[in-house]
Amino acid sequence: MVIEAVTFKDCGAEWNRHLLQFPSNNIYQSYEWGEYRRKFGWMPQRTLYLHKNKPVGLIQALTKKGRFAKFNITWAPGGPVVSGNNELLPEILTSFISQFNKSFYYVRIQPPVNYEQCTPQKSGFRKACVRLGTKYTFRKNLACDLIKELSKNWRHNLKRALKRNFVIEKAEPARDIDKIITVYDDMVKTKNLNYNATHNENELREMLINLKNLHIWLCADSSGKICAVKGYVSQGETAYEIISASTGEGRKNYSSYALAMHVIEAAKKEGMLMYDLGGTDPDLNIGVHNFKNGIGGDLINIPPEWETTNIPFYNLIFNIYLRFYRK
């Protein structure tokens, strides 16, 4: 089969329109996500693939130049997105990789679907040993009775929270950036998280500015002190939770339970059919995993990541770095 590759540059609305035509569309392949990551040196490259003038796949890849000339690192979270005719995947990936032939490259992709028969191996990819993202996520069907699906312990803690008269208000990202960051800063300190808090703050600010269809709520206690923040990005019929944090006090007073239920109910009222609770890893953070598990929904095994490079042993070096040195 012969496919045609069409490059997109500044056609955000048209790119998103094509993306939403694929059942496996996700926010990480949206135009806005690419522009958000551009702020941190990742240059989005967007390609639509046609077969007989009909869209059969697309990929938004984020490329950053390495320290040495003509060396690029490329990461495609949530991509490529391919139509139901998965047999075109190898040809799409071969076409995709061909654009890097004039340089040294390391490319990693994360297809949203597990292509068991048409594996990326046919295009020179190998399964990555260490993931950049998490292995699981929870997805909750919003058509069901939200309360009945809660675990007994989660429902008990929700009742405790509702007795405390929390005030939950929808935030305006541009106006409330500092309030949101204050909650994150407290979470970093009280949980002793091992990442660069300043860099994380910059990313958070840019995300609040650049992402569209972003819905955020703040939860304050009876004294007016903000103790939790949570929000999602809506795309198609799915709400993707992208912001979630609580202060040390917020984790003690059960505000996260009241806020989580409020936000999920708001997504349902907006017309969302699915709520993606975001990544989870029971080995790294069993507390967060149990909290999301208690909300109900299905535990989804995120498909593997795949990598390819034309530099001998670089994939091994990169995976060793991810396993032992990434914080």
Q: What brief labels describe this structure?
A:
single chain, 327 residues, Aminopeptidase, eight-stranded mixed β-sheet, seven-stranded mixed β-sheet, 34% helix, 29% strand
Any overview of this molecule?
- There is one protein chain.
- The protein is an alpha+beta fold.
- The protein folds into two domains: 152 residues, Aminopeptidase (3-Layer(aba) Sandwich); 165 residues, Aminopeptidase, CATH 3.40.630.30.
- It is built from ten helices and 15 strands.
- The strands form two sheets. Strands 1, 2, 3, 4, 5, 6, 7 and 15 form an eight-stranded mixed β-sheet that branches. Strands 9-10-11-12-13-8-14 form a seven-stranded mixed β-sheet, with helices on both faces.
- The longest helix has 19 residues.
- The radius of gyration is 21 Å and the shape is globular.
Please tally the β strands and state the result. Answer: 15
- What is the 3D form? globular
CATH architecture of the largest domain: 3-Layer(aba) Sandwich
For the termini, the CA-CA separation is: 44 Å
Helix and strand element order:
EHHEEEEHEEEHEHHEEEHHEHEEH
Uncertain segments are none
CATH topology of the largest domain: Aminopeptidase
Based on secondary structure, the structural category is alpha+beta
Give the arrangement of secondary structure elements:
Blueprint: E1 4-8, H1 12-19, H2 31-38, E2 43-51, E3 54-65, E4 71-77, E5 81-82, H3 89-98, E6 104-110, E7 126-127, E8 136-141, H4 152-162, E9 167-170, H5 173-191, H6 197-210, E10 214-220, E11 226-235, E12 238-246, H7 248-252, H8 255-270, E13 274-280, H9 286-295, E14 298-301, E15 306-309, H10 314-324
Parallel strand pairs: 4-6, 12-13
Antiparallel strand pairs: 1-2, 2-3, 3-4, 3-5, 6-15, 7-15, 8-13, 8-14, 9-10, 10-11, 11-12
